[in-house]
Specification:
77% helix, two-stranded antiparallel ribbon, 284 residues
Length: 284
């Protein structure tokens, strides 16, 4: 359990560093065209910074999968939500952004929530899951994410609104992939992971979220888009952990209350981070 949370912290650091690199590369790459997915992907990976960001993000994803195999989904995603702390520090110290007092307040609140979550963590018991709940949750989130992508293509949607919708779509689809991966890491039987339909679900979700996230990074405010992507993905996965895997919120009345308040702190802190930011070096 503890080692799983350590992997989650490392994954959170790598994920946000990767996002910042990808954003720097995405704004330099040709505009993404949904009608030309291969050409768009090639244009992105021809950008040095996007390629570096993708490699870092892939390594962070590997740590994420390791964390999911050792700790509960809700705990892992709560720790990943705290990646906003890394996002804020990295963005200001190394990527030329200036955070206002409101953003640092959000970071502090998020960190406090994570400390409480860590102190009240319980050892995960025998893993169980509900296939019916898995189908319902995955289908609902997948439809919601794809629907947001389709709506964002309408010409009446402004650029900032399009970026926020695509970021939200990307994040909930990341959540679909996380729930599917958690299910696969605890499945049994030879080659089950390779033969399972949830492998395809995770793959489809990943591909759609890849393009949606890259497009949102091209046209949106960097920190705002990254924060929304991170928080909403984690919330979707936390909900999946509770509904699909029956993960307990806490142990005992005090533990449950403390963890509920901690989750609220993480969400409240995250909500304060995506405020308007000024970029010293011109990166938006």
């Amino acid at each position: 359990m503890i080692f799983g949370l350590i992997l989650a912290v490392a994954s959170a650091l790598g994920t946000n560093l990767g996002f910042l690199f990808k954003q720097r590369g995405a704004v330099l790459a040709p505009q993404i065209r949904l009608r030309h997915p291969v050409r768009s992907a090639a244009g992105l990976f021809h950008s040095k910074w996007f390629l570096v960001g993708w490699i870092v993000s892939f390594a962070a994803w590997g740590l994420h999968v390791g964390a999911l195999s050792l700790a509960s989904l809700s705990s892992v995603q709560a720790v990943l939500s705290g990646g906003l702390v890394f996002l804020a520090v990295l963005a200001e110290r190394f990527f030329g952004f200036h955070l206002e007092r409101r953003q640092w307040t959000g970071v502090t609140i998020t960190a406090a929530g994570l400390v409480i979550i860590g102190l009240t963590a319980t050892t995960e018991g025998p893993q169980r899951s509900s296939l019916a709940a898995l189908i319902a949750v995955e289908s609902a989130i997948l439809v919601f994410g794809v629907g947001l992508v389709l709506i964002s293509t309408h010409s009446a949607i402004g650029q900032r609104r399009e970026a926020l919708m695509l970021a939200t779509a990307a994040c909930v689809l990341f959540g679909v992939s996380d729930v599917a991966m958690k299910y696969l890491t605890h499945s049994t039987g030879p080659l089950f992971g390779l033969l399972s339909p949830w492998t395809l679900t995770a793959l489809v979700s990943f591909v759609i979220s890849f393009y949606a996230s890259a497009r949102s990074l091209q046209i949106g405010k960097a920190i705002e888009v990254i924060a929304i992507t991170s928080v909403a993905a984690n919330l979707a996965a936390i909900i999946g952990g509770v509904l699909v895997f029956g993960e307990p919120i806490g142990s005992g009345a005090v533990g449950i209350i403390a963890r509920v308040l901690a989750f609220c702190l993480v969400i409240a802190g995250a909500a304060l981070v995506p405020a308007p930011l000024r970029a010293r070096s011109g990166h938006s």
